[in-house]
Amino acid sequence: MNTDFDPRKIESRLAKLAPACRGLLAEPSGGDDVPHWRVILESLTSDGDRAFVASDHWQDLKRCLAPLADFQSPPLRLPELDYDAPSEQLRAGVRAAIRDHVETHAQKPLVILAPDVGILHVVQRAGERDAPLRNEVAVVTGAAGAIGAGICRGLLQNGCRVAATDLPGERLDNLVAEFAETAGDRIIGVPLDVTDVESVTAGFNAVVRQWGGVDIVIVNAGVPLVSSIVEMALEEFRLLEKVNVEGALLTLAEAGRLMRLQGTGGDIVLISTKNVFSPGARFGAYSATKAGAHQLARIASLELAPFDIRVNMVAPDAVFADGERKSGLWETIGPDRMRDKGLSAEDLPEHYKNRSLLKARVTAQHVANAVLFFVTRKTPTTGATIPVDGGLPDATPR
After folding, report:
1. How many domains does the chain divide into?
2. pLDDT tens digits for range 371-385
3. Residues 58, 204, 286, 320: which is the catalytic one?
């Protein structure tokens, strides 16, 4: 074993190996909409763990670090793999090793030992068996806002493991601490800047290290701007383009690459907006950039469908808060809308409620419900948009 192994190389190898292993350890469900029962795959990559993999007593899990002593089934030690080879070649090498293990032991391995990387092991916990999204792993961008928080809560309530991502800071820390009170270790916070390629890659890699892969990605991060076209500064528009369009592109791309490597399909949901279909005055930068992100998601639905990766959109209107957590978008645009309509801060939500056909106030939970419709695969649907707006005829997708 190389005791001076570069941690970055371990991280890079693990980011390729773990999703491939996790996908190959999934069991066929026999269903069409949800064809696989997935597993959670945690990783151990310390010097001691890698030393155990390289040792002559690697088959004796009682001599390994906890929590492996309780595993009764024999481990699989992988052969040397070419991590610089194409992903499918790496996956084929792992597939062959697992096939040989099954032929010898009549079961898939629960512990996989990878030379110069570490140990991967299946996590099985009681109490999660009946949850609709048990053993599913989700990444939510822009999680610390009102809509993001509502989506995280909905996913957690359905048994999912959730990586809440946002810019580092108190808002993200508070969100994770709040949900951890009930969800425990099924939620983690991952600082992530969607405009930075390395940050997006590192964020997804952190989720892979924690749980082995990703099954659900909610593309939610975004920023607003209130300005007329004639008054708009180009740099302000470029900021929105960077976050709302490039951020969506980078997230879609990383999600697609990871899900393809995993090989068990996946679900991506873009949080769009009613402004894609019915833009508002002085809201051109937001409307245009969100429309760009929406179109990218539609194209992703075409490109990723052959891999059973579904890409859908949810288009909400006027979500002001999630409990005590205020919407960052409405903190920005609220004052302008109040001046424009001659309303107080207290009256503004009522105005948006009453303009819809159903006279309904849209909540973060409503948005989460639409997301859950897609990610629990109630219908064989991709490339579709669910409006969550109480009924706005001019914003209905056509």
Report:
1. 2
2. 999 999 999 999 999
3. 286
